[in-house]
User: Fold this.
Amino acid sequence: MAALPLLAAEKVEAIEWSFDALFKTRNIPNWFVDLLRTYSQGQALIGHGIFFSLFSGRWSPEQQQWLNHLKRITKEFNFEHITEHFGFMTGKNFHQGAPISVPYNERTLALGQDRLKRMYEACQRPVGLENLAIAYSTAEVQQHGEFLEALLSPINGFIILDLHNFYCHLHNFEENFDRLIQSYPVHMVREIHISGGSWQNSEWFDDKKVRRDTHDDGVPEIVFELLEKVIPLCPNLKYVVLEQLGTGLKTDGQKTRFQKDFLRMDEIVQPSIPHKKTQNDFLPKQKIKFDEIVEDEVFHQQQMQLSAILENAVDAASAEKLLMNSALAKTDWKVEEWKTHMLDAVIQIAQQWKKGFQSPAN
Amino acid sequence: MKISKSLLQAIALGATLGIAATSCSLLEDEIKITPNATDETCEKENKGRNDNNTHHWDNCPACGMG
Assistant:
């Protein structure tokens, strides 16, 4: 309902649909499908996956099912592009948990590149990845953009630059904007997300709070400032999306704030449109070659162990001890360098989502 | 983008009052996608699984996991 006045005023030029979010929901209202059809026919529908779990070390039947679903849904709707999240899902079962980061090395690069090729093969559309909000260490934050570029290059893919996620990195790792943005391949940014978030108390962060990407509040001023700074840097930007959870849109005040945020976003974006001629279609420049499905059993076992620790740890201190005595110790996971306040945040996220997404009504 | 008046009304009604008509098979894996179909099975599932018709269509788990 919060978006209805914006739709009626013809302010919404494109919509993004999480096409895999309704696996447990068979009954979809006709108006929802008609809305998708309207934007699909207007070449203004973009798809945003959640549950593929790009970096799972072991290939699962559910991942093949996800690809099959993607293939079918892209025949039904004309998506302009398809995206997923960086990371792997915690939890023992597919469709559960939250996206968690992985080490940046040749093995994870091979895993991610293989999965992205399969995504492209299934949808035959430009494929992109979103930068992750959660990170374990400063080095990881500083290398995230470079690793995204390496992952996406074989398919000429693109980046969703989520500016609230970027802001989380700036705040939680006390990074400088100019330095961090230079580490990102901004020429690969085709889509930007903006949103709000929340603050998490942490006894391990020098009396400061950890910024969480919870999307349950209005867009903070600093994210609008980031948007103004970043748009001119991105020559191939085509979409800017405002995200907010329905749980944060219950009161009239919240709905009004959402509409104001959208219009503020629109004011910032519109001036750049007349000059915007994107140079990259983000389709592969050569035929995609497939080998055997890439799997890494050792990595899979490490992921299972990490998930179990995160989902069951009493607190960050006990999780640190468990990690130091786990198969992840003294490996590329570099658990020895993880910030305790971020481990605390990851524990809370993993424990929040370990049963999967549940609608408040379900 | 221009949205038809009838669709805007349908959204307003659907979001306010709940789901009247549903597209049963949009996300089914093994059958042809027919988003506008409402069949007997679908109706039964409507009654059996979604009595209060209060699914939150605006709760996108892609957002807010971090």
User: Anything to note?
Assistant: The two ends of chain A are 20 Å apart (CA to CA). The longest helix of chain A spans residues 106-123. The first strand of chain A starts at residue 15 and ends at 17. The CA atoms of residues 310 and 347 of chain A lie 5 Å apart.
